[in-house]
Specification:
CATH class of the largest domain: Alpha Beta
Structural class: alpha/beta
CATH superfamily of the largest domain: Periplasmic binding protein-like II
Strand order of the largest sheet: 5-1-6-13-7
Order of helices and strands: HEEEEHEHEHEEEHEHEHEHEHH
CATH architecture of the largest domain: 3-Layer(aba) Sandwich
Shape: globular
Distance between the termini: 64 Å
Number of strands: 13
Number of helices: 10
Radius of gyration: 21 Å
Helix content: 25-40%
CATH topology of the largest domain: D-Maltodextrin-Binding Protein, domain 2
Largest sheet: 5 strands, mixed
Length: about 260
């Protein structure tokens, strides 16, 4: 009887250990799904884009399985903190404000902000004075919104849940300009919906205290081991050519930016 009990307990312990090991082999990734070409939801509900391909490459390098969860941008950090997923791969800029809530990997890309306007716009530049009195659309809870709110104080800065909404209002004549990542803007301008518009210019300088050093992968505070694994995996795919392979699928330049 005691032998049978010991065997049963040993079997239960083995199953528990196996369950923990299996859980550790899956990394749940949160992403927005509304920020092409970095992340986007297709008509049939598939998540695609640069962020998704990079996340899969990092998971392959770490020998874990990626699963993805689509999450509205405004709630993405709270969802991470609540345990809905283990990491955010969603073009999230590394900023001091966010570092109070989450820990970050090193950057995995860095591209500048830009301003887009209708093709028939008479605006000549992107300074505070140039855009005075104009209405600028920007996705809220982003570094772009923070920059626009602090810089264009003589303009009306209108917040949107995500980039597609601001792009639609620019195309429909409801906005004078929009601010976003230059790659996201170019993707919009290359589409039929974006034929209306053009890039006016890039704000300069691009303050690091607002935009940060680039986009990183966010994890819950204190998960140093996961951060270290992600950093090692980012370095590995940069060196073994996988990063370039993904980069060249989406861009004609190295989206990683300057080596830091």
């Amino acid at each position: 009887m005691r032998i049978a009990l010991r065997i049963a307990l040993a079997a239960s312990a083995a199953l528990l250990t196996l369950g923990v090991a299996q859980a550790q082999e899956t990394l749940r990734i949160g992403t927005e799904g509304a920020y092409p070409p970095f992340n986007n939801l297709t008509a049939d509900g598939q998540l695609v884009g640069f962020d998704i391909d990079i996340a899969n490459a990092l998971c392959d390098e770490m020998k874990v399985k990626c699963t993805f969860v689509a999450q509205d941008w405004d709630g993405i950090i709270p969802a991470l903190q609540a345990g809905k997923f283990d990491a955010i791969v969603a073009s999230m800029s590394i900023t001091a404000e966010r570092k109070e809530k989450v820990d970050f990997s090193n950057k995995y890309y860095n591209t500048p902000s830009a301003i887009a306007v209708p093709k028939d716009s008479t605006l000549k530049g992107v300074t505070k004075e140039d855009l005075a009195g104009k209405t600028i659309g920007v996705a809220t809870t982003t570094t772009h919104f923070n920059y626009a709110s602090k810089t264009y104080t003589d303009s009306t800065v209108k917040g949107y849940p995500s980039s597609p909404e601001e792009q639609a209002d620019l195309a429909n004549g409801r906005l004078d300009a929009i601010e976003d990542d230059i790659v996201v803007l170019q993707q919009f301008l290359d589409s039929p919906e974006g034929a209306c518009c053009k890039i006016l210019g890039q704000p300069s300088p691009q303050p690091v205290d607002i935009f940060g050093p680039g986009a990183g992968i966010a994890v819950r505070k204190g998960e140093t081991d996961l951060v270290n694994k992600l950093n090692s995996a980012i370095d590995a795919i940069r060196k073994n050519g996988k990063y370039k392979e993904i980069n060249d699928k989406y861009f004609k330049f190295d989206v990683y930016g300057a080596e830091s």
